[in-house]
Amino acid sequence: MHARTHITAVTNQKGGVGKTATALNVAGALAEAGQNVLLIDLDPQGHLTDGLGIEQAPAGENTANLYRALVGEFTGSLADLIAPHSAPAGRLDLVPNTIEMFMAVRELDKQRAREQRLARLLSPVRGVYDHVLIDAPPSLDILTDNALAAADGVLIPVQAEDSSLKALRLLLPQIASVDADLRDKPLQLHGLIVSLLRRPATKLAESVIAEFEQLEGLPILGTVPLGVIVGEAWRSGRTVVDYAPDSEHAQAYRTIAKVLTEAGR
Ligand SMILES: Nc1ncnc2c1ncn2[C@@H]1O[C@H](COP(=O)(O)OP(=O)(O)OP(=O)(O)O)[C@@H](O)[C@H]1O
Ligand SMILES: [Mg+2]
What we know:
The chain has helices at residues 19-32, 47-51, 66-70, 104-108, 117-122, 142-150, 162-182, 203-214, 228-235, 240-243, 248-263; strands at residues 6-10, 37-41, 83-85, 92-95, 131-135, 153-158, 188-197, 220-225. It is an alpha/beta fold. The protein has one domain: Rossmann fold (3-Layer(aba) Sandwich). The mean pLDDT is 96. The structure holds adenosine-5'-triphosphate (ATP) and magnesium ion. Adenosine-5'-triphosphate binds next to helix 1, strand 7 and helix 9.
């Protein structure tokens, strides 16, 4: 039994900025450090499920899957939605995607308390897992609102490009509005993760990073360089710390994991 469970949403409505890689590999680093971690694949694309080499949950009426649970059709135990994944030290479990998640936005939009579905669903994990990481979709939709309402804190992967600065100008007000309307306590903004950084960094990338550094209350927690290891690990259904433990990528994810471990204390 763990005293505290820290739930983290990994969000950015901008696509392809490293959300799923961050969720997967920070979770791997937490598990390596002996923590029990539950990942939630909230993105209908199902990339997180693929990245762990886990099959999608079955579809159809009366099945236990994340979609049916979010829309209130499956009311059984959360444990029935969880697929285990082996990790060297701690636990690394997953609530996988199902093809039906493509209907979630449309269906949830019709429902009451639509932003609180994931928070309610996750209430039994408090005290069971040390960490829960939610991989959000690349949109500011009802699924992202659910992630922001369910979490204690948020990690924001970004790329060192102007489009990421622009994306933050939309995302930060969205987080503030969820704080104002849906939460008792404001979300903890853990910080940014500069992902997929090409090296050597261009002048443009350096100037964007300098602008990130000016953002108050949003520290840069780590930089993950562009590297084939991330894709190779993903394709083999393993996390980077497991696949390439001595790589600088593994080290970067461990550094970010430590921030979450501190936040969870
Ligand atoms: N540091 C890295 N080096 C090389 N490839 C990476 C790195 N991080 C992520 N990738 C790859 O880049 C692609 C985009 O990353 P990822 O899927 O994590 O982004 P995302 O923000 O989750 O995307 P989406 O918005 O589609 O959900 C993926 O194919 C992933 O394997
Ligand atoms: Mg993704």
